[in-house]
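User: Please predict structures.

Assistant: First:
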Amino acid sequence: MNSEIVLIGLLLPFLGTSLGSACVFFLKNEIMPSVNIALLGFASGVMMSAAVWSLLIPAIEQSSGSPIVASIGFLAGVGFLLLMDRLVPHLHSASEHAEGLHAKLKKTTMLFFAVTLHNIPEGMAVGVVFAGFLQNGNITIMEAFALSLGIALQNFPEGAIISLPLKSAGGSKKKAFIYGTLSGIVEPIASILTILLSSVIVQALPSLLSFAAGAMVYVIIEELLPESSDNSDIGTVSFAIGFVLMMTLDTLLG
């Protein structure tokens, strides 16, 4: 039974990407800006809350109440994502510089690789929390699902970001959908690999939890919040709702 529940949780982020990619069958151009901002703000709130209650607090508890391991792991997660953004174009740089790089890479191709690469640490984060649940590491199934759901909500607009421009450029709806969906396939793969590795290095679970928290917070600050700045009111309110919802679920059901 546990394996079936975990499998569903691992596939949620991939489902979010797939549903976003499916927008090519229903939308002519793009998701309404206000809806996109609300989704990003809500996902940011859920993920920020999950990073604290589902990742950092369990990491500290498993380290006998010491914040040292959690602090080091958190900073390592931030540093890892920072390094990735230096090595490869993230969503902002891909959007800003693609127009001058038509001879080398199309905008949608850059976005495809940027989103795919950024999905790897997100998949790792999901794998870590479900590994903690399976190993009775002070993580409940609701905490694990909340993080997975937050990432799935974030992945929805990302899938649309890839698929809709492909369709607009003259590609078929089916091809655009497939490309958008493929960008998210790395997440369940990274999640499964993380679970398999965590069973071998169980003593490192607090470090992995805090590392995932750092990676998640980096994604929130670097990617999600700037994208919702066009209408800060909607983004802020959605963030607060997501944060409180996750905190409430964790408190009542955790």
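Second:
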Amino acid sequence: MLPRFEYHRAATIEKALGLLEHNSPDARILAGGTDLLVSMKEGICSPGHVIDIKAIPDLTRIEVASDGSLVIGACATVNEILELKDLPPGMAALHDAASVLATYQLRNRATVGGNIANASPACDLGPPLLVLGAEVTAVSPSGERTVAISDFFTSVKQTCLAQDEVVTFIRVPPPAGAVSAFAKRRRIRGHDLATVNVAAALSGTGGLRLGLGAVATVPLLVDVPGGAAGRPPGDLREAAVRAALDAIAPIDDVRASAGYRCHMVELLVEKTIDMLSERMEGAK
């Protein structure tokens, strides 16, 4: 059963901010609701006011801009990423992650903004957005600001957002010749939270970046040393595994042991590097 609360449906971002400010700190933003409503049912949180921002038209748009960047409204659904016909090949990791996030039905409700604002260390969109250098735009009554997604996550279920801020957009810059990939390990076939997830992106200048999920208090971004223009990703395999294992701090929990997670990080880093090599060959 859900606890009692007052429901508000905001038609504009200004209305949402006014409601949030007036009812703070006893208010929560609802986008898709796939995380918030579960938390409310389980008694993890019980806000007196729920502010639905799904009806704000500008927040539902998702498009590839003229400069090649991807602009994602906070309320765009995960399935809408999969439906994009002109997603740049360098952003393939984002498509990979969206395709294995929950089920088709949940992806019709789950939003991109909600997935990152929930700030689960195991969120599937965090690692690809990290390696692709995404930026998050948030707005409050005092104005708008943009932060790198690498600064967005601060701890388990915590972000840099202030109490009166709302995520409005996520922008992924043009990939500039990059190739990217994502892989996920889960306990069961079908939908499940990640036991470990890994994204990798190789830039046009040869720099290799890894995004690692479910192995620390926040999704991690790791720069692998030794990259250079023209150097194949396979040459960085050992350095990538070493850099990943040095960065992580996994725990034992109901989904896996710390030791198992370390082993899976090694395997998934190698898998994503193989995917990068295959995609580079396919693009020739």
